Amino acid sequence: MGIARGLALDPALVVCDEPVSALDVSVQGQVVNLQRDRGLSYVFVSHDLRIVKFIADRVAVMYLGRIVEIGDKKTIYGRPLHPYTEALLAAVPVARPGLPRRRTAVQGEIPSATSPPSGCLFHPRCPMAIDRCRIEIRILRTVDGREVACHLADSRV
Q1: By C-alpha distance, which of 60, 49, 54, 47 is closest to 31?
Q2: How many C-beta atoms lie closer than 10 Å to residue 4's C-beta?
Q3: Which one of 34, 50, 81, 155 has the largest count of C-beta atoms within 10 Å of its C-beta?
């Protein structure tokens, strides 16, 4: 019903926050196809990376409210450079269980957003963290066709 109300005014842009999270898979497909059928532009916020891959042209990955990687879908899904992006994509279930997969271990608890760690927000859980990560916040910079906030991004290209 909420989606119908939002589309009633025939908007050019729709901001969706987890619009398909509680929906049956067939209904999810109908909602997602509205974008193509109606020529809408979405800002689509979701934890379901399979839906994001289907619907998005560009993807921004956030950790504790900060963008850690942003770029076109093919670049982000094909070769993530931020360790958090890599871990998220490695956790997506695959349709073929025998398919070899690269697992990225993320240990520990998510830090408090009200009392974040110093330096890179992901460093307490990052398997690649170095001393610089604990001290210095890495701002987004262009590396290999996308923006990434990781001190080690250049070495991962």
Answers
A1: 54
A2: 8
A3: 81
Which uninterrupted H or E stretch holds 131? helix 131-135
| Tokens read off for 39 | 């020529």
For residues 156 and 69, is the Cβ–Cβ distance under 8 A? no
Determine whether 99 is exposed, middle or buried from the number of CB atoms within 10 Å of its CB (0-12, 13-18, 19+): exposed
Q: What count of other Cβ atoms lies within 10 Å of the Cβ of residue 37? A: 9
Mean pLDDT value of segment 110-120: 93
Hey, what long-range contacts does 98-107 have (CB within 8 A, 24 or more apart)? none
Distance, C-alpha 135 to centroid of its chain: 24
* pLDDT digit string, tens, across residues 22-39: 777 777 777 777 767 777
Q: pTM to 2 decimals? A: 0.84
- Token digits of residue 84: 């958090």
Q: Which residues contact 134 (CB under 8 A, 6 or more apart)?
A: 117, 118, 119, 120, 123
> Which residue pairs, CB below 8 angstroms and at least 24 apart, start in 125-134?
126/83, 126/84, 127/83, 128/83, 128/152
Task: Over range 107-112, report the average pLDDT.
Answer: 89
Give the percent of the chain with pLDDT over 90: 48
